[in-house]
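Aim 2 progress. For SLH domain-containing protein, the working sequence is reproduced below.
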Amino acid sequence: MGNVATDNNKKALYNPDENTLQIATNPVNVSGYQSAITAARYDTTGNGDYVDVEVLSTGIVQTGDKYDGTDHTVTYLSSFEIELPDYLTKDGVEFIPIQMTVPYTPMDVVVGTGYLNARLRIDWDQTEATGLNQIEPDTTMSSGQVAAVDVTDSATGIRMETDTAKVASDTQFQVRVLTSGTEYEKATSALGNAEFTLYEIKLVNGANELQPYGAVSLTFPYSGEVSMYRINDTGTKTVLRGTESDEGYEIMTSKLGLFAVFGGTKIDVKPSTSTGTNTGSGINSNAATAFTDISGHWAETYITRAVGEGLFSGTSTSTFSPDTSMTAGMVITVLYRMAGSPATTLPDSMENVAEGSWYEIACAWGYNNGIIGGYKAFYPEQAVSRQELATMLYNYDSLRESPSVSGDLSKFSDSGSVVSWAKDAMTWANAVGIVSGTSATTLSPESGASRAQVATMLCRYLDYAK
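Predicted structure tokens for this construct:
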């Protein structure tokens, strides 16, 4: 609902002299729920230090009776002002984390009296002069049922719908049914002896688990008398209010995790085969099953997992090309995604790395963090060798606290071919099981690493790093 709440007020008012931004909002009607933003605060440091916005004007909206049978009168923020945080560069597209309250909607049950996480998107390239001193809100109610991201988990039939602003790029939608383990025991403790089905729902990017930047719709394929709870990290439970439709039981939530379903009858659903209109988001579910060239391949299991973890995509909708070589630029981009695609500083120029290239930011991150040794020695368009890949993984692992490892490459007849700067990395990679020999007696350190080999090494690294 956060995006719809500014549908009629897409432009903010920027005052460079005061370093402030004024934002206007409008009431919303989404799927019959009527509400508006009644409170908001924003992150002043980029580290989760939130302060309340300065309210400039308010309005009144009637909620209707869909939420609880009562038509509530709500006072909402029709305009407010924030002081722009120092962490903004005021160049290109930037985001400010914001938290807001939108009462009398399904999200209200999830967040209680707290706040819903969202982001303010600022496009500095679109600024233009105006004679206004204070923003003038358009208070017309906006309606919408945005589903720019639409993906269904094929195994469980659970569907997620949202828009591109609420999920990170190259994110994987994952759902598991839990029947044992610590999380299941936590749910059993919270719910008692009742019969339930426990789902673990995640958004992941490589090894990183993410949360959406606002509310997403989750539809569980159940009909009839359905009850649902979230199992919180503390072991407590929170009741979730949803709505019934022909497709199942739908809830709105800004926090993924453990969801317990009681009662109802399971509905057979066909999985979504695309990501709706959000073709650039990278949201996928079980995408590897569509590849026609990995069946029976020695690395099929690793390829399927790597695609499922969001580390790889296919070379087309039906092919993975497992034996094709990978370039150094491709590998550093995958590692950058594994790290969560953090913000990084771009130098004025980078030798061997073209300005504006698709791997430019990943290369800058790699250099700034010691993953790659230097731009003059790094050739992103060249095929990466096994020893170069091992070195990049070795340097990547140094970003975390990990135990020291000793090993010995003397059993391989070509161990002398390992260059001096890759010796420690290859020894480590072999010792922890990331790199194995190409035969019982050969390591082939200078051979190019294929997409299948890279997928295998990355999956083995993720297992090692757990």
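Helices lie at 106-111, 182-191, 300-308, 328-338, 360-368, 386-397, 423-431, 451-465. This observation will guide construct design in the next reporting period.
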